[in-house]
Amino acid sequence: MRTELRRGGLVMAVLAALREKHYGYSLRKRLLDAGIDIEEGTLYPLIRRLETQGLLESEWIESAGRKRRYYKATENGLHVLDQLRGEWSQMVLSLEQLLGGKP
Amino acid sequence: MSLVSRYVANVQRFLPPGMRDDVGQELQSLLEDRIEAEAERVGHPLAEAEIAAILREHGHPRRVAGSYLPAPGLASSGAFALYKRTLGRIVTIWFLVTIAVGLYEIYRDNGSSALDGLMGFWHGVYDLMALLLIAVTLVFHFIGDALDRSGRAWRWDPARLPQPQGTWLPVSLPRVIGGSILAMSFLALVVAAPHSFASSEVTVAVGDGVRPLLPVLHGLALFSLLLTIVNLLQRHVTRAKLYAWVAAAIAIAALVSWIIIFHRVLVLTQPGLGKWGSLFISVWPEVLVRALLALAALLLVRSAWRAWQRARTPGLPLI
After folding, report:
1. Which of A99, B25, B204, B263 is deepest in the core (most CB within 10 A)?
2. Is ipTM > 0.90 here?
3. CB contact, 8 Å: A68 with chain B?
4. CB pairs under 8 A, 24+ apart, for B187-195?
5. pLDDT digit of tens for each residue in chain B (319 aa)?
6. Residue B242: which residues within 8 A CB-CB, separation 6 or more?
């Protein structure tokens, strides 16, 4: 249940974190710092899928003798993030209304 | 080769060729980052056991590869490669059983009912095969579903993953299909050619010395077909496969050579021509068939030699 609840928000979390350039491990750390613990086996395929959908772009950058693939949200990705954010806010309002009567 | 590289190569093994390089490069970089960060955290370079623990946490190569692929639907992505392989094996075994029993029905001397019996048998075979495929699909669907729901990782040890010594080499498709065509041609030459020469005037028979060897030749041709199917399913060169091919090719070449040296292959007879006349009309097809068989034996020896050399080349990937 918890996994399913989180799954919907992951795309939004990844797009939001990738407003800045990150490579795989630094993205995971950024999400972890924000309190979102996402398994590597879920995160890395997810960012590749988002790239295929045109929401992210990537480039290989070499620094200190190591090559890393950096990801960043595209214009389209940021547009989708805005839309998702609107949907999310609406959903939170609705849920809070429903949950309001419960202890 | 480091444990990480071995792990990455094993993930690549379950990916389609177009994705292997890209995913492999990225996965290698991600895992190195993770290991580096962990080493910084604990304050010393990680031992192999610690790296193995990180890889185990990352997931079984089959499962990791599955997560990079689109959801296949029939089975969970982690179990899909195993599902596909299981189906492939069932289809292969079924295919061979069908051919073997089919040949038995054709050569069984039971008059005009042979074809009817064969058709009935095939109907039964395909009905049962359809049921088997459905059963396997359902089993994998439920297993995958249960694993996904429980979130339990499969028990495995990164240190026991196979050791590749280079990139995983795909077997080229034209070579696989070429092998299959050659095997079928060989089978056609041995089984169908004598019958196609026959007419109402001329009787053609396989030589007495060769007739008992026909089932063996069928078996060897079927072995070649089996190898083709395995190559199509696996699409990877392995040392074991190369040695198997060397043994099979040498065995077939030896058998063919023995036939053309010691036995008469075809016997053509035509009533009224007499002994010398019949001998004359049987000479040219005999020469042709012997030449073709000799060529096949030479090609097999050459193929076996190449496979032997390749198997002894260092760096050949092992599965």
Report:
1. B204
2. no
3. yes
4. B187/B217, B187/B218, B187/B221, B189/B289, B189/B292, B189/B293, B189/B296, B190/B214, B190/B217, B190/B218, B190/B221, B191/B218, B193/B289, B194/B266
5. 588 888 988 888 888 777 888 888 889 888 988 898 889 888 888 888 889 888 888 888 888 888 887 765 666 666 777 777 788 777 777 777 777 776 666 666 555 455 565 566 666 666 777 777 888 888 877 777 676 666 555 566 777 776 654 445 556 667 767 776 776 676 666 655 555 555 555 555 666 666 666 666 666 667 767 777 776 666 667 777 788 889 988 988 888 888 888 877 776 666 666 666 666 666 777 787 788 888 888 988 998 998 888 788 765 544 3
6. B307, B308, B310, B311, B316
Q: Closest partner residue to A67 among B29, B59, B68, by Cβ?
A: B29
Rounded Cα distance between B199 and B318, Å, is 52
- Sort out which chain A residues have CB atoms less than 8 A from B23's CB and list them: 48
SS3 of residue A62 by DSSP: strand
Interface check for A6 against chain B (CB to CB < 8 A): the answer is no
Residue that the structure tokens 């996402």 belong to: A38
**Nearest residue in A to B67, CA atom:** A45
Contacts with B284 (C-beta within 8 Å, 6 or more apart), sequence order: none
Single-letter residue type at B279: L
pTM for the whole structure: 0.47
Instruction: Please give the single-letter amino acid code of residue B3.
Output: L
What backbone phi and psi angles, to 5 degrees, belong to B92?
-60, -50
Question: What is residue B210's DSSP assignment?
Answer: T
